[in-house]
Design brief:
Largest sheet: 5 strands, mixed
Distance between the termini: 41 Å
Helix content: under 10%
Shape: elongated
Number of helices: 0
CATH topology of the largest domain: Immunoglobulin-like
Structural class: mainly beta
CATH architecture of the largest domain: Sandwich
CATH superfamily of the largest domain: Immunoglobulins
Radius of gyration: 20 Å
Length: about 160
Amino acid sequence: MWVLWYDTSQNKIHVVRTNAAGSRFGAPQTIPAPPTTIELDGLQAEGSQGPLDVVALVLQNSAQSTPSYRDTQLLPKLSLAGSPSSVSHTKATTVTFTATDVGDPVPGATVSFLGKTAKTNSKGVAQITVPKGTATGKHTATVTRPDYTPATFTVKVT
């Protein structure tokens, strides 16, 4: 379920999404209104298929302007976690990545890390091995899936 509201003091639309059970809220997103907006009238949204389509009737403060409809689409945000988050370059170590959407597992997402890719299983889990001798430092893993905003996770190699 998506929830959205217009904040007149900030001239922004705030949006938040729940997990499938409706028991947990995800990270909020913000949509800035056009700069000359003085009011949004008839804010409507539909997101039953995943992406959220937002339509608003915008009233602007510029001279001789007429109300206009504005629309945009927001994608659900993925989250990515990894364990362990720190590994040694002296031995090969498998990192287990978990992709979620407001806490719900995301199957079929692609995790990219150190030039390798892996698909998440039905529990949102994918594994990639950090080879022995990998350069020390911070390395970023990315998870993607169509109709979602990607997410990243950093693994430190010591």
